[in-house]
Amino acid sequence: MVLKKVKKFYIGCVGNMKLLCQKCNTEIFVNENMIMIHDNIWNTFFNKSDIYCDHCIENILGRNITVLDLNDALCNYFWKEKHNL
Ligand SMILES: [Zn+2]
């Protein structure tokens, strides 16, 4: 219930920003395919300004994303909810 309200607010805030995955060109949505992984993992595989969808992140990492990879960014809650993690 609370998450739904937060979700609406959060999506509203970033609603004007169009993010495209720089590898597959898929549009990235906060409540769909956006994930934020911990800096130490990100910095090992990616540049700071890189933008990738969840699938391309998994491809580049060469494995599936786990909850341990995800930081406490709000988009990760949506992603975990969506993937039943
Ligand atoms: Zn992609």
Structural overview:
- The radius of gyration is 13 Å and the shape is globular.
- It has helices at 2-13, 39-45, 54-61, 74-82, and strands at 19-20, 27-28.
- Helix content is 42%, strand content 5%.
- The protein contains four helices and two strands; from the N terminus they run αββααα.
- The protein has 85 residues and is mainly α.
- The protein has one domain (2-82).
- The chain has a two-stranded antiparallel sheet with strand order 1-2.
- It binds zinc ion.
- Zinc ion binds at residues 21, 23-24, 26, 52-53, 55-56.
Structural topology:
Elements: H1 2-13, E1 19-20, E2 27-28, H2 39-45, H3 54-61, H4 74-82
Antiparallel strand pairs: 1-2
The structure holds zinc ion.
Highlighted features:
85 residues, mainly alpha, two-stranded antiparallel ribbon, 4 helices, 42% helix, 5% strand, binds zinc ion
Q: What is this entry, summarized?
A:
The chain is mostly helical. It has one domain. The chain is built from 4 helices and 2 strands.
Going across the biggest sheet, name each strand in turn. 1-2
Level of helix content? Answer: 40-55%
* N→C terminal distance: 18 Å
Bound molecules: zinc ion
Poorly predicted sequence stretches spanning 5 or more consecutive residues: none
Q: Report the mean per-residue pLDDT as an integer.
A: 88
Number of helices: 4
Q: Name the beta content range.
A: under 5%
| Overall spatial form | globular
Radius of gyration (CA) equals 13 Å
Give the oligomeric state: single chain
Order of helices and strands: HEEHHH
Query: What number of domains?
Result: 1
Largest sheet: 2 strands, antiparallel
Q: What structural category do the secondary elements indicate?
A: mainly alpha
Number of strand elements: 2
